[in-house]
Every structure is written in structure tokens, then in C-alpha cells.
Prior knowledge:
The complex is a heterodimer. By secondary structure, chain A is an alpha/beta fold. Chain A is 25% helix and 23% strand. Chain A has one domain: Nitrilase/N-carbamoyl-D-aminoacid amidohydrolase. Chain A is built from nine helices and 16 strands. In chain A, the strands form three sheets. In chain A, strands 1, 2, 3, 4, 5, 6 and 15 form a seven-stranded mixed β-sheet that branches. Chain A has a six-stranded mixed β-sheet with strand order 7-8-9-10-13-14, covered by helices on one side. In chain A, a hairpin with a 4-residue loop joins strand 7 (151-152) and strand 8. The relative contact order of chain A is 0.17. In chain B, the strands form three sheets. In chain B, strands 1, 2, 3, 4, 5, 6 and 15 form a seven-stranded mixed β-sheet that branches. Chain B is globular. Strand 16 (298-302) of chain A pairs antiparallel with strand 16 of chain B, so a sheet runs across the interface.
Amino acid sequence: MTALRVAAVQASYTLMDRDTTVDRVAALTADAAAQGAELIVFPEVFVPGTPIWIDTRPVWDGDEDWFGLLADNAVVVPGPASARLAGVAADHQVWLVVGVDERERHGSTIYNTVLYYSPAGELAARHRKLVPTGSERTVWGMGDGSTLPVVDIGTARISGLTCWENYMPLARFHLYAQGVNVWVAPTLAQGDGWIATLRHLARENRMFVLGVNPVLHADQIPAGFPARESLVPPGYLEQNGPWLEEGNTVIVAPDGTVIAGPVRRREEILIADLDLREVAIQRRHLDPVGHYNRPDIFRLYVDTAPRPPVIVDPAAAAPQNRKEEPNEHHPSDQRIRG
Amino acid sequence: MEPVTVAAVQAAPVLLDRDATIAKVVTFSEKAAAEGARLVAFPEAFVPGYPDWVWRTRPWDAVASTLYARLLDQALVVGSAATDLLARTARRLGIWLSVGASERDEGGATLYNTLLHFGPDGSLAARHRKLVPTGGERLVWGTGDGSGLTVTDTGFGRLGGLICWENYMPLARAALYARGVDIYLAPTWDNSDVWVPTLRHIAKEGRTYVIGVTACIRAADLPGTLPGRAELYGGVDDWLSRGNTAIIGPDGAVLAGPLTGEEGIVLAEIDTGKARASRQQFDPAGHYSRSDVLRLTVDTTPRTAVSFRRHHDAAEPASPSGEPG
């Protein structure tokens, strides 16, 4: 049996506090590793948390300081917080997957990014969400096609998409075609409808699926948070209740069966042992990129080129001499050490 | 858009009896129309019944060959008296009528798992042949081409659909989303627990109403004359399909059903204006696509193995059976 023990960590972040939240990642990773987990997955933008004001208030309505905090506490790759996360992975010899609010070193646009660290303490892959959802578009930019990786971790091929990006059939298909068999879906999505989606995804590609959410009660907003009283107005609490993040963490088998969770309204590390042979066995029934595809009818073209805002090219006047090598400061170089 | 009532009919076919099964289609359509339904949908391969034996026989057993011969004989041919009756029923009742069938070309001996949509004007508005059959189905059904990946404007929403596990083909769904489907039919034989979650996912992914419709049949419903009846099938406790019929809203909520273990008409009121408006949140073919990164092409050319042409002539039409019924 090719087994992989995985952990899906449903936990609270310290809102807009990167370093304290990275401490949480370290402690929770130690806990999951002590339970034998080899792959440990944290929620969407766990570091330094969800910019919750985008849903609690009108757009651009008194959010200056909050956005300033988000920009200050965003994770820069490479940078100290990323190096710290890489160290956590190395300390426990685990694959560590963490959702972060990310920005370029000198940038002010925030990306909704998932970072994959290897047990060797390397940043193995980075995925920037392709399309933010609704109000998220007021804080997050869009990733390009260069960060749609599948990571071979030896026992499994891991990949995934973030939150409603999981509803993009073409993006999923591109990752399916790269042989993913353990899918990580960091998300903020709540409720049974989301569980239905993860069960569908598992069955569509006959793969294991980990849906991982944060959990946050309104009382957990730090006491000294700027304009704390207006961050979550009473009317919002009345309508939506005190759980800003209810949680919905779940693990699903390749036949669509829920094998752990969903867990809501509490912190919990879900642990499961995945038998990877189950994937191939299930795909005798359905393989969306193999015998259950119709490549004569459908052709999917994917542009995986990094799209930096500027291509620095001293030889631009003589295009025939141009070398197709990435600039050393390229923002989307995936092999940067964490 | 005006809200309308739609109906999904969970029923037992008279297995391998085309005309008797079509008589049931007519009866159930009349009942559904009397309930106010503007669209009435029947299950996968309903005429003349899903070839369930592909899961019970060894592939090359003599009885499987005998059953295939019967299925070939009882299959639906577009343009025949049988499709005329379905078209006239749609016109008489003023409904859109969607029926799954084992279908073949007039002179053909390969069967297709086909979904036919008849309009209230009595036309055959669309025909979709399942692109990929599943497992044992591959021993009785061929594969359709991309020409059936269409969506039809009913006046109360854009109607399309895929058949059974074809609904697990992300690219086929993306094609229908891009055509603006508002009412998505998913006739199926799938009885599993995961099927309704799949319907809910598709509804939310496409921001479309989804009508999942399944046959409900047990061995006791099978004609005594069915070849292999005694050796392959038991009695009332031997379910071929319990049914799993459900209608889902564009937010993924279950509006009606799932109905299991009995025949019945599952009804729901739909308003496709709501489906379209909900695409403010998510539109897989619009603001939530990334056409700069991910670009799908779909070949919708009708494909026939042999095209006949005479010297000096232009090519003849590919298939006469593509004409409206």
C-alpha cells in the first residue's frame, strides 16, 4: 500500500499579524507532524488572515488602515516569513502547504497565493489564484498561468486551486492532465454546497481532496485592532452571526466519499491515511484526461508563460538576438528558495 | 424571464419495447403538462430502456448478443414514426419534450446514447449523442461527435444537457456554459450518493438550473418475454435503478427531490432570469474565466466515416437522419 498520512488544519489566524500567525503555523505543524502527518495543509490566506472588511463594509469605506496593515503583513517571497515557513517544513520533515496574502517585494498589489514547501525546506511551488471572487477583487490581483503546478512528493502528486477557482473547469482540467492525485483546496467557502463541490471534484478526477478552511469568531479580532468597532458592524453580525469564518474542513476519497469532517466552529486537525492505489483503481471507471476524454473534439490550450509587468530586454532593438531566459528578478520564478 | 414549471419524469420503461415505452412517455407528458409543465424531461436511454444487462452478463455471452439484437431492433431512428409521435406529442401539449433514447442511423447497426429535444412547434430542436459511454456501456453504444454540444433557446431559458457520466467531463460542461445554458439536463442511470452532490456542483459551477432525471425500474417491471429474463433478473427486490431524480437551483440548492424507489413526476418552478443574475457572483464563461491563460476549442463538425459524392457534385449532406423528426 502506497500510503500518505495527511493533515488538514482548521485553525484561527491572528488577523493581519503575520509573525504571530506564522508562530501558529509552526505550533500546529509540530502537532500534526507528531501525529505522523507527511503532508500538512493550511487554509486560504491563513497568513495573515482574511481581509474580512471586504464583506462587512461597502467598498473603500474606511478601509485605509486595514489595507495598510494587510500590505505590511503580506508575505514576500523570498523573504523572512517565507524562509520561516520553509524552516518549519524542514524542522518536521514534512510537506507544508500554506495559503498567504502575498505581494512583490516592492509591490502594493496583494495576491491570494498558496505556497508549497518541501521537507528539505525549499519552496517547491507557488500558486497565485487566477481570479478573485466578487469583493475579493478589491484587494487581490490575478495570477498568471505560470503558477499552475503539480508537485511530485514521491508518494503522491499534489496540486489544487483556491476557493471558487475550484469552479473553473479549464483550470482543473489543466491540473488533472498533469497527473494530480491529491488535491488541496484551501478555501473560505462555507456550507454543504461546498462539500458537494469537493465530493464532485474527487469523483470527477478520481483523486483525494482536502478542503481546508480557517475558523474565526468575531471575539477573536485582536483587542487593539484599528477601528475595531467598525470592522464588523452590528448589522453584519445580526445578519451573519458571530462566526466570521465558520470552517468547513473535509477530506474526500476518490469515489466521492467523505472520509473526515466536515468540521465547523472549532479548531481541529483532520488526519487521514490515503491509499494512493485507490486513484488508479477508481480511474478504471472514469479518467477525465484519458479514456473518458475526447481530445478529437476538445483542445485546451494553456499559456504558462510568466507575465511580469515589464520584460527587461537590453537587446530589444535587435529581436533576432533575444534570449528567452527569465529575468533574475522575475516575480514568478518558482524555484526561489523560501 | 417569466417563471415556469419544469418536470422530470422518473419512470420505468418497458424494456426493449419501443412503442410501449413511448406510450408511457405520452401518458406522463400529458400528466406533467396538466400540472403546468412547460418542459418535460425523461431519463437516459429511456426509449426503449437502459441496457442494464451490460453490467450483468459476460461481454460476449450469447444472451448479451441476443439482447443487443433486440435493442438494435427497438432503437429509435430519427425521422421514423416513433420520433414523429414524440414530436406531435410535444406540439399537442405545447411543451418542450426531452427524451433519452438508444438511437441509430436508419441503416446503421451502431447505437448511440442520445438525448433528443422536441420543441412545442413539433420540431426536433436538438440531438446530442453521448460522447463517451461508461464501462460496460462501451459494448453497446458508440461515441457521438461534437455537433450535438448545442444549447437551444426555449423562450424561457437556454436548454442543453449532458448524459450520465459525461457530466464528469469538465470540457464538455465548459462548452455548454459558453453557449449560455440556463436549464441543464442530466439524464442518468447513476444511483449513487455522490450523484446529487455532482448535480449541485454543476448548478453552482454553471449558475444554471440542473434537472437530474433517472429511471426507476426493478426486475418485476421487466417483460416476461425479455431474453435472459430468468437467468439475469430476480423479482421486486432486484432493482435495476431506484431512481435519483432531483431539480437543483443555480445556487446549488435542491429545489425538488431526490425521488427514489417509486415512479413520479418531480416538479419545480424555475426562473432563468435568476440563474443569469447569479452569474454576477460567478460566470465560468465570462468574468470568472481566464481566456488569456486557458483557451478551449471545440470541434462541432458532424463526423461521418464515409461521405458519398458524385463526380462534379458538391459533397452530399452527411447524414439524412439529422433532419427534424
